[in-house]
Each structure stands twice: as C-alpha cells, then as structure tokens.
Write a structure and sequence with these properties.
- The structure is a single chain.
- This protein is mostly beta strands.
- The protein contains one helix and seven strands.
- The strands form three sheets. A three-stranded parallel sheet has the order 3-4-5, with helices on one face.
- The longest helix is centred in the middle third of the chain and has 11 residues.
- The protein is globular, with a radius of gyration of 15 Å.
- It starts with a strand and ends with a strand.
Length: 107
C-alpha cells in the first residue's frame, strides 16, 4: 500500500489464491497496522470466503488508525509508537533496511 514512504492509493486484489477458504481456520500475520485500511479491506475480503475462523496476529499497532472491523487477538508490541516510521525485521523504508535483525523507528 506504500510506495516509498507515501501511500500508494486504493487497495485492490491483483490475483486470488485458488484455495477454497470456506470452513477453514485462518490466522493473518501482519507486521504493522498503520492506518488500518489494508487490514479492514483484507478482513472483508476474507470474511466473504466464509472461513470457520479468522484471527489476526500483528507485530505493532499504531494508535491513530481508523476503527477496525475486527479484533486483533495477538499483539507483540503494545506501547504507543506515535508517528514513527518503522524499518527492519522484514519492514522496509524505500526498499532498504528490511534485513535488519532489530526494529528501528525514525521519528
């Protein structure tokens, strides 16, 4: 959803997986809830597939996100991150720093 450090616009599904998700237990693992738009979109998309269960595990949640249409069952980092841009541990900043073994915040 981001291009560089700017939002890229509307969210859209480019290609759907061919696995039937109906009646299955699904756990979505996400790195960061920034605004919440992506996960709200994904939640609606997955609910339409009629899974048996749908849960979310998130590394970090920023407090200023829009209301979520679901509960995040598992959160790794609980403290307020403010407006900091996070990088490392799989998250990038302009395609850099993804391989860091720590999470860094640029404030």
């Amino acid at each position: 959803r981001y291009h560089g450090e700017n939002q890229a616009g509307d969210i859209k599904i480019i290609s759907e997986h061919c696995i039937d998700l109906s009646g299955r237990e699904i756990i979505v693992i996400e790195d960061l809830v920034d605004e919440g738009k992506t996960l709200n979109f994904l939640n609606k998309f997955l609910e339409d597939k009629k899974p048996k269960g749908l849960q979310y595990c998130v590394l970090a949640v920023k407090k200023d996100h829009q209301p979520l249409d679901f509960e995040i069952k598992y959160k790794v980092i609980e403290e307020d991150l403010g407006p900091a841009w996070l990088a490392g541990f799989g998250m990038d900043s302009n395609q850099q720093y993804r391989g860091l073994k720590e999470i860094w915040a640029r404030v």
